[in-house]
Amino acid sequence: MPATGSVLLAPSGTDWSQYTTMYYVKGAAAGGICCSITHGALTPVDVVKTRVQLDPAKYNTGLIGGFRTIIAEEGAMALTTGLGATAAGYFVQGWFKFGGVEFFKVNAAKALGEEKAWENKTNIYLGAAACAEFIADIFLCPLEAVRIRSVSDPEFCDGLADGFAKMLKTEGVGGFYAGFLPILAKQIPYTCAKFVVQGTAADSIYASMGKTPDECSNGSNIGISLASGVIAGVASAIISHPADTLLSKVNKKGAGGTGSMMTRLGNIAREIGFFKLCTVGLAPRCVMIGTLTAGQFGIFDTVMNALGASKFHFHNPEAE
C-alpha cells in the first residue's frame, strides 16, 4: 500500500479518466473516517491539553499529572467530555479536508500537466491544503466551539445537541464562529505542513532505502506512512500551537474582555505572553497530533484501498 503523499514513479502517463466524482467521494469518505476515528480516540488527551491551556496554574504537572487531576476531581468519564462533538466535527472536517486536497491536487496537476506538476508539487500541496482546510473549517468551527465550551465548563451541557441549543440561545449564530479566525490561523498552517512534511518525509525514507513504494511490502509501506505521519504531526503541532491556544482561550466565556474578535485575541495574547502562547500545552499536543496524524494517513490509505480507489500520486515524466 503506497504511503499517502509519497511519489510513485509510474511507467506511463497518468490516466486522468479515473479521477471522477466518485473518486473524490471515496477520498472524502476515507478522510472523514480517518479523522473521526483518530480525533475521537484521542479525546482524553485533547481534554487534558485544553485544560492546560485554559488553566496552566492548576494543571502544571504535565500530561500525566493532568490526567490524574481530572480523574481525581471529576472521575474518569470527564476525559470523554466533548467526544460527540469531536467525532462529528472531525468527520465533517476530514470529509472536506482530505476530499478537498485530492480534488484540488488532482485538478491542479491536470491543468498544469505532469511535468510542471512534478516541478511544483510542493506548491500544489500547499494550495490544495489551504483551500480544502478553509472550506472544512466553515463546517468544523461550530462543533469545535461546543466542544471547547463543554471541556472548559463540564456543567455547560449534557451532549452535542444540548450544547448547540444552549449556545444558539445565549449567543446566537455568531457564538459558533467566535473562534473562526484563530481556527483558520491554526488549521491552515497545520494542514499545509501536514501534507507537505508527510510527503517529503515519506519520499526521503524511500530514497534512503533505494526503493519506491511499489517495491516494498504492504507492511513496510504502512510503517513508512505511520513514521512520516508522526514527523508531519509534530511539525504541524509546533507551527499551529499558538493559534490553538488562542482558540481554546477565546471560546472560554468572558475571555479577552469585550470588543471585536481581533481586540479579544490581542488581549488574550498580551495576557499570556508570546513564550507561553507557543509552549503551554505543547508537549501533550505534540503527542496527540503526532499520533493522530500517523493514524490518519494509515487509515486513509487503508480505506481508499478498501473502496477500490487508486490514489493519485505525482508522476515524474523523466523517470520513464
Automatic annotation (TrEMBL):
Topology class, membrane: Multi-pass membrane protein
PANTHER family: MITOCHONDRIAL PHOSPHATE CARRIER PROTEIN, SOLUTE CARRIER FAMILY 25 (MITOCHONDRIAL CARRIER PHOSPHATE CARRIER), MEMBER 3, LIKE-RELATED-RELATED
A GO cellular component annotation in the UniProt record: mitochondrial inner membrane
UniProt Solcar repeat ranges: 22-107, 120-204, 220-306
Organism expressing this protein natively: Nitzschia inconspicua
Keyword Glycoprotein in annotation: no
GO MF term (any one): phosphate transmembrane transporter activity
Keywords assigned: Membrane, Mitochondrion, Mitochondrion inner membrane, Repeat, Transmembrane, Transmembrane helix, Transport
UniProt record similarity statement: Belongs to the mitochondrial carrier (TC 2.A.29) family.
Record-level GO BP terms: mitochondrial phosphate ion transmembrane transport
Top-level division of the source organism's lineage: Eukaryota
InterPro entries reported in the protein's UniProt record: MCP_transmembrane, SLC25A3/Pic2/Mir1-like
Pfam families membership: Mito_carr
Major location (coarse): mitochondrion
Compartmental location: Mitochondrion inner membrane
Name of this protein: Mitochondrial carrier protein
Keyword match Transferase: no
